[in-house]
Amino acid sequence: MELENSHPSVVVDLGSGPHRINSDVSVRPDVWYQYIVERSGKHVKLTIREEGRDGDILHVKEEVISGKFHRKRAIGPQRRPLIKRDL
Q: Would you kindly state where each structural domain of the chain is located, as residue ranges?
């Protein structure tokens, strides 16, 4: 995640070089935001959730990115099967 001229962006590389997705929203220092990046295959979605007076406002930018690596990869803790051992 990067911030350029008050606009959030994310750089994604699926194997064909880096691709930047720029949000159209201009963020302000006096407002809370949540940045959400989702990927499914070639589809990458950048969502900026803005805390508004009457509820949250979602700013969504979605792009299809070319590349060699389109399979999903797990990020974060991995679940492993439990192994039963005799003592």
A: 2-64
